Amino acid sequence: MNKIQSADDQLSQLNRAVEMYQKKRLSRRALLDILKWDMAVTEESTVSTFLDGVRGNQTLTDDLIDEITRLYTENVQHWAFPEEGGLAKALPEAVEGTFPELIQSLKSARGALSNVLDKIVGVNVRLNLRSSYGAVVDARRLMSSEIALLERACEHVGAGTLLAPEFPGEDDLGQPSWSSPGGAPLSPKQIVWLADLGQKRPELTVNYAEGISAHSSPPQLVTERIEAREWERIRAEENRRLEERMRKGMARSCPRCESAPGAACRSRAGTETTMHKGRYIVLARTSQSIRRG
Ligand SMILES: [Zn+2]
Description:
Elements: H1 7-22, H2 28-40, H3 44-55, H4 62-75, H5 87-90, H6 99-122, H7 130-159, E1 162-163, H8 188-200, E2 206-207, H9 208-211, H10 220-250, H11 277-280, H12 282-292
Antiparallel strand pairs: 1-2
Helix pairs in contact: 1-2, 1-3, 2-4, 6-7, 7-8
């Protein structure tokens, strides 16, 4: 959504939020919330143009200007904490995006589902679409709860909230804690949970970026995607080789049914059949010819 917005659009969207606040159509809290998320998905140069404008705006209180500036430097910028260098390259499509961008894209997908609901109701054919409607409502509800969770986790990650360094009882199971080099990345739910736990024992805490800094393995989904791609590549290569062999096999006569080069293999009854293995599996032919020789 925000990817296709021009810098000018993004800038006017940020400025519009400030105007709405000044017209008292937004509370201060709502303004800061909107700015936080919008600035997170806006190019840095556009944000600094916006912030220059805010700082030069005589109608805003110093205290609000200060808060907006701090919102960016202390919070939003941290959302893009540096990931392991080579990780993006390891991604099959080298998709790179920040955590807030992911959340924004989920929100826009949820918005699209609401339009789908209108379409279901408004379709100009008499149909009972109750089950289709229900399916989309369920999907939207699932997305909403996932978005809420992701937002909370994103805030913790971005703000550098201190988390408990391990799950209770993890040690007893002999599993490496998430914050150790052998650990795995956390789910949003786990981040939220460990943030709550961390508040109870503040003496033993670590923020998310620090905790995962020693990890050597990429996130689970990335690994799965890479493995799936690798299998696809291997299968494609095997298919290519098989086709090549069958093409070569076709160019010679079949040792089993003795079909001439270029002619299809035939069963004993004389009907065309799939190529006999001995015609295209070179290894079998070679060992046969060695035996014959
Ligand atoms: Zn044959």
